[in-house]
Amino acid sequence: MECxxxxxxTSKVVDSRLTSxxxxxxxxxxxxLCLERFTTYESTEEHMLPVxxxxxxxxxxxxxxxxxxxxxxxxxxxDLSNETKTLVAQVDKLERSQSAAGALSKKKAxxxxxxxxxxxxxxxxxxxxxxxxxxxxxxxISTLKAKTGFDDKKLSNAVHRAVKQGxxxxxxxxxxxxx
Length: 179
Fold this sequence. Notes:
By secondary structure, the chain is an alpha+beta fold. Helices cover 49% and strands 18% of the residues. The strands form two sheets. It has a three-stranded antiparallel beta sheet, with no helix packed on it.
């Protein structure tokens, strides 16, 4: 699932529940890169069929005979199947073009250039710990906020997480040092 905040493809499911209409699954996800949370709704084609029938036929569907509903159901399933096939083909085409572009960029790279490896991005907690480590007498929340540029909520979550993990401890009002 792609994070809407940082476009990362790595996320974990925090909570998963059926919606009240029991048609789709509501999942709360947390991005592993930026730690932001977002919601996704997932459903399958079979679950969408009753919704489509109700939309097409209306509330008087009990009065209609099964003979009139079967062609509609068949056509709807066929259309959904075709849409799915089209989407899968588009994704395959996109993946092939990206892999081809990646292969071209690899061919263009000269062997003399050193390979620069990307280091893993530091998490919010890692950034906060790095700053706290510099201050032997302790550092306050206001200093952390000025040094990191994080908002209050993100900063308090990172400090709380580090305290829970036992990496830092509180020595005064909003003053923290390494444990």
